[in-house]
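Retro notes (design track)

What went well: tokenization of the new backbones is finally stable.
What didn't: we kept losing track of which sequence belonged to which structure.
Fix going forward: every design gets posted as structure first, then sequence, in one message. First example under the new rule, 366 residues:
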């Protein structure tokens, strides 16, 4: 695998709606890159390079990866818990060896913005992007106290309604943050302290990667060619629902594994590697793809306790829910070619149900 070529493609977020789905690498390359993301980087060598990036407070030890801990819930980075000399704990988010990240500066700037607005996120201690095939990109961030919502609800299922209500409220507060541009943010500008989307219009950002996604779903027999054509028409430039004059910060992955709780509120927002400048309704549509519809009413009650309900809410919600389902199913079927685990099979089945619901809502037959 030519890492120089892969890195050029993988950090390019032009024509990308949801990076994990439309990143410009093949299924075979994705398998090779992420297959050994934990075991390929040893703690002793990581400790050395991390301390070269840290200034005053050095890291004295790093815990071994534990797949059962909440730090291991993500699919992109290998997350390690480190311990600084001062006694503070950090999370070291390591990208696979030799692969550039291309979004750590965006993530850190977005987290800073959340913190400045009084929302619970992390501070960043250091960022390093790999310089060779033997190097690794990493981000050293504050370890926020709290339990991942996913883990908390597994242990306290009776608290689900309260926590889901708080998730809705917290997302609405995030959407009070206005940003420039649309779509994925420019990482080079983020290095200089500017958070700006790389697309000029909301329409452009929503249509990014759409043709690729639809072709993938047809090729994998998830939808028919006729359905793909009808879905495509819904995102035509003349659709008035694709008008958005000013973007807000959209997390784009506001799921249980990326939120921390103290049991009462949401006290940590993490994993901003999919954040974009977009219409707030996109975040709602994205959130709905993770779960069945039983959660939705409680989530929306929380959200609209903070934010006003927009005009044409149901139509916009259904449109953006469909757009995310198309991307998420592209991600799932591509990944299932090299990672045939039962969890992904269940997600594909859930996605089929969501796409069927969308087809029925828009009057599109098989």
């Amino acid at each position: 695998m030519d890492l120089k070529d892969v890195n050029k493609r993988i950090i390019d977020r032009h024509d990308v709606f949801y990076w994990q789905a439309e990143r410009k690498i093949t299924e075979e390359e994705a398998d090779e890159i992420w297959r050994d993301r934990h075991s390929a980087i040893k703690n002793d060598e990581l400790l050395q390079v991390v301390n070269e990036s840290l200034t005053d407070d050095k890291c004295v030890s790093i815990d071994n990866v534990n797949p059962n801990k909440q730090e291991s819930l993500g699919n992109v980075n290998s997350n390690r818990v480190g311990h600084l000399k001062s006694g503070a704990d950090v999370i070291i988010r390591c990208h696979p060896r030799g692969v550039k990240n291309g979004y750590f500066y965006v993530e850190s700037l977005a987290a800073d913005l959340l913190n400045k607005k009084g929302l619970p996120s992390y501070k960043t201690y250091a960022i390093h992007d790999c310089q060779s095939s033997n190097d690794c990109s990493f981000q050293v961030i504050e370890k926020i106290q709290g339990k991942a919502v996913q883990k908390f609800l597994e242990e306290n299922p009776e608290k689900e309604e309260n926590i889901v209500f708080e998730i809705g409220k917290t997302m609405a507060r995030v959407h009070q943050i206005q940003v420039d541009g649309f779509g994925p943010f420019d990482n080079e500008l983020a290095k200089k302290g500017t958070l700006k989307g790389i697309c000029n219009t909301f329409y452009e950002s929503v249509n990014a990667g759409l043709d690729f996604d639809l072709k993938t779903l047809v090729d994998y027999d998830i939808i028919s060619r006729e359905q793909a054509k009808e879905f495509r028409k819904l995102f035509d430039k003349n659709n008035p629902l694709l008008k958005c004059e000013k973007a807000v910060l959209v997390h784009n992955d506001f799921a249980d594994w990326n939120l921390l709780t103290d049991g009462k509120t949401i006290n940590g927002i993490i994993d901003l590697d999919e954040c974009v400048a977009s219409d707030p309704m996109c975040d709602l549509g994205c959130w709905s793809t993770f779960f069945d519809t039983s959660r939705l009413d409680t989530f929306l009650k929380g959200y609209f306790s903070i934010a006003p309900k927009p005009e044409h809410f149901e139509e916009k919600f259904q449109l953006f829910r469909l757009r995310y389902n198309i991307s998420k199913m592209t991600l799932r079927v591509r990944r299932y070619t090299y990672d045939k685990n039962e969890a992904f099979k269940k997600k594909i089945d859930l996605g089929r149900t969501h796409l069927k619901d969308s087809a029925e809502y828009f009057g599109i037959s098989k």
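Added context from the reviewer: The first helix runs from residue 3 to 10.
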